[in-house]
Specification:
Length: 216
Amino acid sequence: MKLFHINNDSTRLLIFFAGFYTDNNCFIEFDNKKSDILFIYDYSDLNFDEISYFDFTPYVEINLIAYSYGVFAANLAADFLPEINNSIAISGTIFPIDENYGIKPKIYDLMLNSFNIDVIQNFKNKMELNSGGIIQNSKREIENLKSELMNIKNFVLNNEIKEEFEFDKVIITKKDRIIPYIAQKSYWEGHKNVYELDLGHFPFFNFNDFDEILEL
C-alpha cells in the first residue's frame, strides 16, 4: 500500500482511497487546494503501517472518499484511521470479488489470467465509458497491477470480510462496466444515504472537485 501526500497548507485533510489501476495522477484535477490530500493506493500489499504512522494531529477536519476497490481497502483500514468527519463510498463495495456484491470470480480470474497491457487499456476504456471525460493515466507498472490483483484474490480466499467502517454516504454508478450496478445496489440496499448516478465507473467528471462530492 502506498501513500502520496499533497500539502496545500490546510487544516483540513481528505483521505482518498483509490481503486485498482488508479493513483494520485488520475484525480489531481479535482483538487481545489482547500484541503491537504492523502492518496492511498496500490493494494499489492495490505500493510497499514504507513497509515498508522501518518501524523493526523495538525488537522481539525478529516474527510474520506473511497473509490472502487478503495471501498474494500478503507473498510480493512478502519482500525488505523483517525476520527472521520464525513465519508463517502463511490462505485464499490467492501467485497472486491463476490458472486453477489462485487466482481464475479469468473470475470476476475479471466482478467487476472490474461493480464497484459491490452487488458489494462480495456479496463481504462470501461472506466471512461459513460463517465464524461478522459482519465489521466496512472503511473503504475503492469507488474505492480498484476501483483495487486493477485494479492486481493489471495486475501479474499483466506479471510472473512466483515463491515468495519460505516460510510456516511454512498454513490452507486448505474452504467458501471467494472463493478456491476446490481452488485452495488444489492450490497448498499438499506443504507440511509444512497445516490444513484446514471454514469459509468468513474463518475468524478460529474463534479467540479472533491468538496462537491462530500457535500452531497
